[in-house]
Amino acid sequence: MHVSVGQDSYSFCRPEVTQFSRQLYGAYNQTWSISQHRQSQFMYFANSKGLLEFDGSSWRLYELPRKQKVRSVAVDKNGRIYTGALGEFGYWLPNQAGKLTYYSLTSLVRDKAFRNEEVWNILVTPGGVLFQSFAYIYRYQQGKVQTLHPPGNVLFVQQVRDQLLLEVIDKGLYELRNDAFLLVKGSEFLGRETVNTLLPAGEKDILIGTEQAIYRYDGSQFKPFDARVNVFMRQNRLNRGLKIGTDRYAFGTLLNGVLITTADGRILYRFNQKNGLQNSTVLSMRQDADGNLWVGLDRGIDLINLNSPIRYFTDHDDNLGTVYAIARHANYLYLGTNQGLYYKLLTRPDSPFQLIPETQGQVWNLAVLDGQLLCGHNRGTFRIEGVKARLLCPITGGWVLHRLSRYPDQLIQGTYTKLCVYQKDSRGQWLFSHTVDGFSAPVRQLEEDETGAIWVNKAPNQGLQRLRLSADLKRVEASTEYADPVFQQAFVNLCRLGTTILATSARGVRRFDVGTGRFVLAPMPFLQSELAIRKLFPLSDDELFILRQDGALSFLQRGNGHRRNSTSREVPIQSNQWVDESEAIVPLDSGHVAICRENGFALLSRAELPQLATGTVRSPIIRSVTAVDDPATNQLFQDQQQYRQAEPMLSFSHRQADLLVTFSMPYYTRPIKYSYWLENSTRTWSAYSAAYQKEFSNLPPGTYVLHLRSNLSNAETALTFEIRPPWYWTTWSKLLYVLLLIALARFLYQLHLRRVALKQNQVREKLEEKLRHQEEESQREIILLQKEQLEQGLIQKSEELANSTMTLIQKNELLMQLKDELKQVRGQLGNRLPTDHFQRINYLIDTNLSSEQDWKLFEANFNKVHEQFLKHLIENHPDLSQGDLKLAAYLRMNLSTKEIAQLLNITHRSVELKRYRLRKKLALDADINLSEFMIKY
After folding, report:
1. 528-535: Cβ within 8 A, 24+ apart
2. In this structure, how many other beta carbons lie within 10 angstroms of the beta carbon of residue 217?
3. What superkingdom heads the lineage (predicted)?
């Protein structure tokens, strides 16, 4: 895709130049040769430090075994990368890990002088690969190297169509044919010049470029190419030449950069250190597969984006300031910046921009209305007449100017403080008329809806307001505030698309719903696929530019208002050059659109906008996969052909679970963003990002599929890899663990059975012990019951003994009383009572007193009750008499002295004497009570 601007009005706008400094690519300054891989589209550079590889995202350097400077590089159709250096040439191929490995061919060269030769040029031909030094030409074919001896020192062998041509110093131009060097007749004069380029011209002609001039050779005559071009070459010394496209040429010089011309010699562009290149000394050039021009310089590498429909004007010297507005009027192009209003006469495109007097300061707006240019300035509003400025309105801050559809002869303007109205005078010129009463606020955007209401966007972030003006436009009759929190929290842009009022912000696109009278978050159908919109720039009802929040720009064509018929194309423009919050895209004329940038502007051809994204875009490349903790484990990929999804291509140990994946896409002039999805790890696709590296951390063992796509197409790349489990978590180890688990389970089961049996034994023993205790308890209870019964019997016996004892006592007492009464009666009666009767009665009384038989009976009962008290007493005190035992028994029964005396039929005095004697025999102290001793005994 090429824009043939030639010497048109905008010829001072040039293709974009991308600079790659040595700090960026990580090698030396000089780049001597450039080539491109046909399959991968990677770029290769012969650098003084080594071979440079660029995949669109990252640079890699490969050094020769002896660290020589790489002077030349060429890639054949099979992907072999040939390089030449001092006393060295060979080729590079990727090894199993994808890293380029060098294979030297110098062992095939028999000439010892080769070690001192620099291989400056490599040419891949159908008859083999030619490696050329100044003195020799070496042909490599079918594993052999053949040395060709030219008729003198040569500069460069070059192929023009099917001819191999070279200059022999001091002799002229030669053709190499069938290993023979044939002089081109009439070229002897070229031997005295330095021929640096040979290029095809037309169908049969050849352009021959020397340091001093360019000649056109038609097979018989040598004619100068173009006078102006030759003057330029004579002054700046031509060093390289390249045919680009079908009708253009690029010439690289040693002193003044690159000159691009048409086939007939018309100069299109000049690129040098002053307008974009890093350096003006061109050492090499190469056109890539997309038609863009790579330039190897004495300091750095530059890329001229010839394939883009966009041309740029860049203020390299920073003389103009930041561009806020742009307009074309008559033959002038005007730039409104933060430093003033500048102009350029388009009939003299090489002339510089100049400041219009009295316009110093901030220019906000330029509008061409009915053939007049009005300038909104921080000091007011001017009418620009050629290169002069006339102040129309002193109200400061002319932000936006809009023609009213219902009043075509009147304009309304938003300023720092008021709304201003302009109208035409009798001569048809715009003049300031009045301000609108009832409104006072800064207005940076203004639109009119289909009902005639005025919508204003108040700065900063004060919300939107809808105004209904009076018929004479002098006052506000009604107003409605739309102070949505979203409008206050985010920077909002107001625009009208067709009949719809839209407000865009970081929170989404909101449309004014006439039915509800509110802004609703409901994008129009054709905008549903556009996310995070910052601003809309309608060119017409069916064409508009969409600026997204990340700075990316797309061009949308609507098809009958239906989304399915709409087409959106990415505009390849840098996303970091917008004027924040004052972005502007302005139609300059019927054929061009301008985009304001911080240091200039970009120019787009409207005719080529529908063709922005033609052609098939390849899927992105997963360039490398590296274990973060083990950088030596690095797998490089050259293209998608190396990916296999059926089986894991890559295998990493569990200790390499942190992986760094690098992406690339060999589209060198388009802003590329990537989105990825790691199957079996992440759930959805990531958001598009310009980052070309992604680190995946702590991946568990398993198989993963990394899916990758770019913003340029939906083409997808997939790479399968695995994280191996540790040795202790393999299939065999798992089987072993299962067996061990089964054995452990069996062991635990047996142990459980043993424990159950032991528990049962313990329970049985406990039950037996419990039964034993219960039985013993029962026996004790029985014994206790028996004891109680015995005690009850003893108590009963004791009671009976006591009763019998009392009975004896009472009987003895009664008998004694009878005996005493009998003695008294005898004493009273004297002899009147017969003696025999008295004796017989007295005998009966004596015989009925307690006898020895009574005592034995008492003793037997007493022993039963008191557990053989008398027996134990005799055992402990064998010297006790029978009388002592009787007394002890009576004392045991707690009988009184009187009662004992009656039982023993003795006096009280005798009982006391017995007690004394018993105490003495028992050896009791005087303070011990004898009765208590017997009771406790």
Report:
1. 528/563, 529/563, 529/568, 530/554, 530/556, 530/568, 532/506, 533/504, 533/508, 533/509, 534/493, 534/504, 534/506, 534/583, 535/493, 535/495, 535/504, 535/583
2. 22
3. Bacteria
Q: Under DSSP, is residue 515 helix (H, G, I), strand (E, B) or coil? A: coil
Q: DSSP code of 443?
A: E
3-class DSSP state for residue 820?
Answer: helix
500 and 356 share a domain?
A: yes
Q: What are phi and psi of 416, to 5 degrees?
A: -65, -30
Q: In this structure, is residue 229 part of a structural domain?
A: no
- Dmax (CA) of the chain: 218
Residue 741 belongs to some domain of the structure? yes
Same domain, 438 and 535: yes
Task: Check residue 324 and give left, alpha or beta (phi > 0: left; psi -120 to 50: alpha).
Answer: alpha
State whether 744 and 880 are in the same domain. yes
Contact in structure between 85 and 71 (CB atoms under 8 Å): yes
197 pairs with which residues across the strands? 209
**CATH label of the domain that carries residue 492:** 2.130.10.10
CATH number reported for the structural domain that contains residue 672 in this entry = 2.60.40.10
- Nearest 5 degrees, angle CA 659-CA 662-CA 664? 160
The answer on 743 and 709 residing in a single domain is no
Asked whether the CA dihedral 151, 154, 157, 158 is positive or negative, the reply is negative
Does the pTM of the predicted model rise above 0.70? yes
Q: Of 189, 153, 190, 160, nearest to 175 (Cα)?
A: 160
CA separation for the pair 108, 128 (Å, rounded): 15
- 10 Å CB burial of residue 222 (0-12, 13-18, 19+) is middle
Q: What is the mean pLDDT of the chain?
A: 88
Average pLDDT over residues 166-183: 93
CA nearest 705: which of 687, 724, 723? 723
753 or 575, which is more confident: 753
Claim to verify: residue 782 and residue 703 sit in the same structural domain: no
Overall domain count for the chain? 3
Which of 729, 747, 770 delimits the end of a domain? 729
Task: Rounding to the nearest 10 degrees, give the CA dihedral for residues 712, 716, 717, 723.
Answer: 120
Domain that includes residue 337, residue range: 323-543
Nearest to 455 by CA among 526, 378, 393, 400: 400
Same domain, 757 and 817: yes
Percent of the chain with pLDDT over 90: 56
Are residues 499 and 376 located together in one domain of the fold?
yes
The structure tokens listed for 112 are 């010892």
Per the structure block, which two tokens stand in for 106? 């110098």
Question: Is 606 in contact with 586 (CB distance < 8 Å)?
Answer: no
Does some domain include residue 343? yes
Q: How far apart are CA 676 and CA 685, in angstroms?
A: 5
Helices H, strands E: what count in the chain?
11, 64
Is the pLDDT at 201 greater than 90? The verdict is: yes
Query: Same structural domain for residues 668 and 759?
Result: no
Domain boundary among 670, 700, 729: 729
Q: Are 71 and 33 in contact (CB under 8 A)?
A: yes
pLDDT of residue 885: 83
Length of the chain: 937
The pLDDT of residue 281 is 97
Does any domain span residue 182? no
